[in-house]
């Protein structure tokens, strides 16, 4: 046999072996994918112990609607990059299910990872906690650190515990804003502002280097009222003396010094918590009060909220019925066009309302508003759809959440009925426009602008040319008309004399109680009250109707792809391992992006905005 033939034979054998391995690998890969597909297509009810403790761990801020496109949000969750947030309705549903579920012996509310949320959202959850406790089951709160948002919920629990090395800190409410006038002066930017409303403070960060006296007075009044409500609720829930919190805040340094900086002991001494327990001690307490049997690891049987909801929602079935109340959530800044959840798009939110109008099973609509406003044009598009729903014979009821101000009020005012909580920030009826020009900035680096146009206006409203007096006059006239339209619509929809509307408008903000007194809302009440009233307007009997949520959904292809990735993660492979953690430079860039992005989002076609900077901490 020749050397060439021997070499060919050896090569052929090697190739056959490699080809055989390739086919085996292909088969294994196909079997792996097939198992994932079968797993994704199967829907099993999550299992839980016959006796268990429900553990609710809110993470991030409380929201009425999860922010972000559903596809992006789900992908970020798989990759471990999601922005922490907890849906209020999930907690409400979990507590409602657990109240009547004999398998649930107690509830643990772990508040270590919840920085806070709007007072109206906290109050809804607090009411659900009170309702759960009426079943006779214990609800126990625990945290390593209690901020005032987390503590508001904890105060409503049967028992409140904290780690001995933990921290308890109430700070009061505040509104602090960055002011950019000094920066704009250094950059030689002319920030042209046009507004109507003596208290319309939204443009102030670009025209001042401090809070105006009018805004300071208005915000102080607002914060004092809300802080008073917070203190009253907490002290009533814990059975504390009326001046307990004021005493603590006034003498905080003295008390801290007396206790050698031990804020946990201070919380115990003042009666804010019932005990300081280590993790092991807390575990023993839960085992004791729940009466459950420990497992081989010494842990009590538990189910977390996500798993519990997955099971209960499958068991209970769809909340929809033949006749429904539609729920549309409008949360976040109001922008023109189509926007993802967590922001309100003039087109996208109008589309959701239009879908509710065209759905024959929908007999009434509840619009849940949690917004400081934004684009006036987008707000008007949404108001138009509210009127179209009413014209189609479908009542519309607005339920205001933490904030429904400026544009948030604009999209609410046409409703048949407006509900708000006493904690809601609303009003701020006023508008403004902004148009920055950069001709001085460009001149500083040697760039000038010159040219000709067929008319005077051809060269106007350019960011590289100074605004003329004529353009300023025209812009202000547009803003004046916008404000007149705003108060005229409020007068029409609310049945208030236009002059009287003007006196309570001017950009002034009000609590829910003040708004009720001034006729801007109809009732103090929560989301459930709004739903019940919508059913009454639609002449639906109690218990005969369902609730249908209208929101952006994943396409079948997107949902299937996410199911596949979720199953891959379930089988042990973590997609987050493919991503790198953010560097310090990226974190700084994100902070700068958060500061600049509000300006980049301004997209009203006329540059007219109904926006309120009235979100507090």
Gist?
The protein is α/β, with parallel strands linked by helices. It has three domains: 52-314, 2-enoyl-CoA Hydratase, Chain A, domain 1; 318-552 and 596-611, 2-enoyl-CoA Hydratase, Chain A, domain 1; 559-595, no CATH class.
Would you write up a description of this structure?
The chain is of the alpha/beta class. Helices cover 46% and strands 18% of the residues. It has 23 helices and 22 strands. Strands 10, 13, 15, 16, 17, 19, 20 and 21 form an eight-stranded mixed β-sheet that branches. Strand 4 (104-110), helix 4 and strand 5 (138-146) form a beta-alpha-beta unit. The chain starts with a helix and ends in a 6-residue tail after the last strand. The mean pLDDT is 86.
**Average pLDDT:** 86
Q: Which of globular, elongated, flat, extended, rod-shaped describes the shape? A: globular
Question: Would you tell me which CATH topology of the largest domain applies?
Answer: 2-enoyl-CoA Hydratase, Chain A, domain 1
Secondary-structure content class: alpha/beta
Supply the CATH architecture of the largest domain: Alpha-Beta Complex
Count of the separate structural domains: 3
**Unreliable runs:** none
Count of individual helical segments:
23
The top level CATH class name of the largest domain:
Alpha Beta
Q: Could you tell me the number of beta strands?
A: 22
The proportion of strand residues reads 15-25%
Radius of gyration: 29 Å
CATH 4th-level superfamily of the largest domain? 2-enoyl-CoA Hydratase, Chain A, domain 1
Largest sheet: 8 strands, mixed
Into which percent range does the helicity of residues fall?
Answer: 40-55%
**End-to-end C-alpha gap:** 88 Å
């Amino acid at each position: 046999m020749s050397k060439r033939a021997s070499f060919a034979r050896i090569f052929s054998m090697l190739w056959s072996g490699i080809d055989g391995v390739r086919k085996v690998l292909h088969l294994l890969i196909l079997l792996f994918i097939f198992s994932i597909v079968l797993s994704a297509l199967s829907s099993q009810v999550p299992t839980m112990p016959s006796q268990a403790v429900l553990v609710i761990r809110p993470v991030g801020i409380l929201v009425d609607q999860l922010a972000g496109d559903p596809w992006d949000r789900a992908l970020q969750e798989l990759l471990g990059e999601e922005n922490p947030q907890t849906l209020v309705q999930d907690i409400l549903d979990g507590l409602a299910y657990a109240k009547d579920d004999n398998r649930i012996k107690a509830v643990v509310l772990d508040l270590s990872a919840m920085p806070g949320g709007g007072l109206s959202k906290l109050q809804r959850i607090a009411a659900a906690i009170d309702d759960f406790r009426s079943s006779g089951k214990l609800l126990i709160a625990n945290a390593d650190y209690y901020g005032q948002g987390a503590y508001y919920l904890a105060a409503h629990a049967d028992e409140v515990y904290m780690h001995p090395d933990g921290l308890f800190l109430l700070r009061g409410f505040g509104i602090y804003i960055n002011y950019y006038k000094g920066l704009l002066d250094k950059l030689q930017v002319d920030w042209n502002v046009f507004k109507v409303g003596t208290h319309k403070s939204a443009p102030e960060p670009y025209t001042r280097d401090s809070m105006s006296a009018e805004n300071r007075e208005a915000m102080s009044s607002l914060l004092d009222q809300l802080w008073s409500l917070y203190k009253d609720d907490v002290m009533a829930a814990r059975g504390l003396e009326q001046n307990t919190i004021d005493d603590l805040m006034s003498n905080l340094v003295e008390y801290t010094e007396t206790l050698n900086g031990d804020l946990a002991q201070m919380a115990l001494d003042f009666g804010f918590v019932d005990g300081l327990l280590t993790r092991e001690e807390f575990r023993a307490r839960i085992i004791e009060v729940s009466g459950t049997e420990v497992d081989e690891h010494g842990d009590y049987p538990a189910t977390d909220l996500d798993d519990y909801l997955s099971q209960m929602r499958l068991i209970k079935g769809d909340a929809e019925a033949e006749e429904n109340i539609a729920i549309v959530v409008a949360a976040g800044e109001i922008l023109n066009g189509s926007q993802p959840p967590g922001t309100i798009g003039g087109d996208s939110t109008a589309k959701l309302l239009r879908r509710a109008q065209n759905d024959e099973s929908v007999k009434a609509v509840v619009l849940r508003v949690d917004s400081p406003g934004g684009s006036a044009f987008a707000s008007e598009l949404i108001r138009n759809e509210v009127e179209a729903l009413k014209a189609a014979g479908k009542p519309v009821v607005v339920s205001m959440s933490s904030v429904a101000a400026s544009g948030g009020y604009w999209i609410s005012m046409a409703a048949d009925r407006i509900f708000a909580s006493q904690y809601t920030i609303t009003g701020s009826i006023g508008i403004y426009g902004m148009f920055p020009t950069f001709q001085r900035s460009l001149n500083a680096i040697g760039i000038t602008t010159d040219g000709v146009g067929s008319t005077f206006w051809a060269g106007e409203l350019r960011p590289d040319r100074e605004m003329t007096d004529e353009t300023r006059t025209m812009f202000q006239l547009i803003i004046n008309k916008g404000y007149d339209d705003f108060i005229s619509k409020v007068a029409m929809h609310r049945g208030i004399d236009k002059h009287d509307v003007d006196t309570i408008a001017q950009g002034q903000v009000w609590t829910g109680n003040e708004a009720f007194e001034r006729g801007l809302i109809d009732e103090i009440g929560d989301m459930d009250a709004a739903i019940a009233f919508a059913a009454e307007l639609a002449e639906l009997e109690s218990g005969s109707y369902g609730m249908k949520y209208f929101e952006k959904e994943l396409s079948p292809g997107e949902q299937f792809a996410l199911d596949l990735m979720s199953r891959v993660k379930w089988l042990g492979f973590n997609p987050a391992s493919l991503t790198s953690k953010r560097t310090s430079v990226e974190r700084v860039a994100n902070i700068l992006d958060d500061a600049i992005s509000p300006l980049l989002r301004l997209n009203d076609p006329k540059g007219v905005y109904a926006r309120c900077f009235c979100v507090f901490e």
